[in-house]
Amino acid sequence: MPRKAPKYEGVKPNYPPLRRSAEQKVLHEMGQISRPEDRIVRAVEIVRQADAEIGAHLGDRNAALASLYLYDHLEGASLADAVGVNKNALRKVLAEVSLGDSRAQIPPHMSDDELTQFAKKHKVRHIPDAAERLAELGRIIEKAKARRGVAVRVMQDTILVLNDEPYGWKPERIAEHAGVMRDLIYKQRAAARKRHGL
After folding, report:
1. What DSSP designation does 17 have?
2. For residues 159 and 182, is the Cβ–Cβ distance under 8 A?
3. pLDDT digits (tens, 9 = 90+) for 27-41
4. How far apart (Å, rounded) are the C-alpha atoms in residues 85 and 54?
5. Domains in the chain: how many in total?
6. What is the pLDDT of residues 99-157, one digit of tens each?
7. What keyword terms does UniProt attach to this protein (predicted)?
């Protein structure tokens, strides 16, 4: 008989409005920048800032999730809800933290003792204050992901504007101006064209 895990009872942020708010702030800021050559620079800055923020907090969030699941034996679905991801994403996080590979499979249907032994065997840290930190880490990461997503779309659309007349900028010039690699401009231009059906 499968074990009945306790649910995570900590704060569970309401992620959809948090994401919408973060997206609206970026859209508002981008709407205030009329010159596309300035808009692309700011969009790239927002993407970089979001990537840095995600990078600074993702490891801590993932370690907290693994600790709560493997040591505190909390239900996976409630932990996934607490950080705004689905159960498959949670499984990948747990596999990455414990086995070093997000595609690896964690043995299913383990008892509480087996979960703890699995965690110790794979040197997963136990984080005593993980429950208190989880919601804030989830909020930071999800807001940064939302800002990044909007900034990438703005960057893509701005690349099309700069590439077209009257600007006529080549991808190399856009890349140099924005301070990014030329390959990124080609990739984002292709994504924008596909998104717009061009």
Report:
1. H
2. no
3. 999 999 999 999 999
4. 14
5. 1
6. 999 999 988 888 899 999 999 999 999 999 999 999 899 999 999 999 999 999 999 99
7. Plasmid
- Per-residue pLDDT band for 3 (boundaries 50, 70, 90) equals low
**Residue 117 near residue 20 (C-beta atoms within 8 A):** no
Crossing angle (nearest 10°) for helices 36-70 and 15-31: 160
| 4: pLDDT strictly greater than 80 | no
Q: Which domain holds residue 178?
A: 15-195
Q: Are 42 and 33 in contact (CB under 8 A)?
A: yes
Residue 25: exposure state from Cβ atoms within 10 A (0-12, 13-18, ≥19): middle
Q: Is residue 137 part of a domain?
A: yes
| C-alpha separations of 94 from 51, 75, 154, 158, 193 in Å | 21, 13, 33, 38, 36
In a domain, 128, yes or no: yes
Give the whole-angstrom CA distance, residue 151 versus residue 26: 7
Whose tokens are 């984080």? That residue is 127
Asked whether residue 4 is assigned to any structural domain, the reply reads no
pTM for this one?
Answer: 0.88
The DSSP H or E segment spanning 62 is helix 36-70
